[in-house]
Specification:
Layout: E1 12-13, H1 16-29, E2 33-37, E3 40-52, H2 69-80, H3 86-92, H4 111-116, H5 125-135, E4 143-145, E5 163-171, E6 174-185, H6 189-208, E7 211-225, H7 229-237, H8 260-274, H9 282-286, H10 292-309, H11 316-320, H12 324-333
The chain binds 5-(hydroxymethyl)cytidine 5'-(dihydrogen phosphate).
5-(hydroxymethyl)cytidine 5'-(dihydrogen phosphate) is lined by residues 37-38, 108-109, 160-163, 183-185, 189, 193.
Length: 343
């Protein structure tokens, strides 16, 4: 673990589960301001930062709030493929359509277009930043800019990027990532933002062939909307219940050799499953030739296909084949679609 100077660097948590609860507690019990902007009344704490020692341990396991792991993975892959379409992301989160000005695409939220879409010289920010890290490992310039000043020039823009930028620091052979956000919904948005950025951090570490370092999250306006305040109180109560044991799972590790071609293959399967053009079984997944890590991602997308495109309970063989942490989340999140004996 890296040495930190107390008081001037943010608190370090081992995993996002602990950081999530710490932030929810801080915003709830140490509210600095009550704000009302664009129809959202919220409790706000400004300039909140934390660090996570293991960025792979990126999922909170909370019974009151089993997070949507399938959406989290889809969104991270949507970013990594440089897309901005609702076709893909709206299938996993229909509610995102309300942030689209044209009903087809997202602007501010489509972070992938800033990081992965080729520019006039056919290079991406991602490639330039990774090349810089290869040629000058101690660089302080490996910044992926996300927020664009032009976003405020659009009248009533429904979707202005919440993330300003993300910066890699390669130190002692470990790849650290720092994410800077102008605003973050601590209860909802933060879960998917930390998931996606730590996932991209892991992809970058694979591509550079280095170890994962720390993940750091800096947010100017950390807030909880009033409509979520009561649920957040219940979430905060959970670890205080008698006999509480924090569910702990070993986080799956992305295979070191993960390349763009592996990600492209995953995305091809994802699209076919999303369009219900094909289905998978644990056996057909092993036949794809993809690493076990990516088979698990596709197994989650297959389970979501069954949830979206059929009205039957999910196939028990598929539930049993899930990684234990994913199974914990899926069986709680989609309780009413689980086969008997698994919910
Ligand atoms: O008024 P404003 O543009 O800030 O409303 C968007 C709100 O969505 C943010 O304040 C934040 O609460 C939430 N959000 C988030 O937490 C939005 C995005 C999309 O960029 C995000 N995380 N990634």
């Amino acid at each position: 673990m890296q040495r930190l100077t107390p008081h001037v660097t943010p608190h370090i948590e081992q995993n996002f589960h602990d950081a999530y609860l710490a932030v929810l507690d801080a915003v709830t019990n140490h509210t600095e301001h009550t704000t009302s902007s664009r129809g959202n009344d919220s409790a706000e704490l400004t300039n909140v930062s934390f660090r996570i020692a293991d960025p792979r341990d990126r999922l909170p396991f909370i019974r009151q709030r089993p997070v949507n792991i399938i959406f989290n993975l889809a969104e991270a892959l949507w970013y990594a493929s440089g897309r901005d379409d609702l076709d893909m992301i709206g299938y996993y989160a229909p509610g995102m359509a309300k942030n689209s000005a044209d009903g087809k695409t997202l602007t501010g939220t489509a972070y992938g277009t800033r990081m992965f879409a080729p520019d006039a010289e056919n290079a991406t920010q991602w490639d330039r930043v990774l090349d810089l890290l290869r040629s000058d490992p101690d660089t302080k310039r490996a910044v992926l800019g996300i927020y664009r000043p032009e976003e405020l020039a659009v009248t009533d823009n429904p979707d202005v990027s919440c993330t300003i930028s993300a910066q890699f620091l390669l130190r002692e052979g470990r790849l650290n990532l720092t994410c800077y956000m102008r605003g973050n919904d601590a209860y909802r948005g933060m879960v998917s933002d930390v998931f996606a950025f730590t996932f991209l951090q892991e992809i970058a570490a694979c591509q550079l062939g280095v170890e994962l370092g720390l993940y750091t999250h800096h947010v100017a306006s950390m807030h909880i909307n009033d409509r979520d305040a009561e649920t957040v109180r219940r979430v905060l109560h959970e670890p205080r219940e008698p006999g509480y044991l924090r569910p702990a799972f070993r986080p799956p590790e992305m295979p070191a050799g993960t390349s763009w071609s592996a990600l492209e293959a995953v995305l091809e399967h994802e699209e076919a499953l999303r369009n219900n053009e094909r289905s998978h079984t644990p056996k057909t997944l092993t036949e794809t030739g993809l690493a076990e890590y990516w088979q698990q991602v596709l197994l989650l997308f297959e389970i979501f296909r069954q949830i979206k495109h059929t009205d039957q309970a999910v196939n028990p063989d598929h539930v049993v084949a899930l990684d234990p942490g994913y199974r914990w989340l899926v069986t709680r999140r989609w309780k009413n679609r689980m086969p008997k004996g698994t919910a």
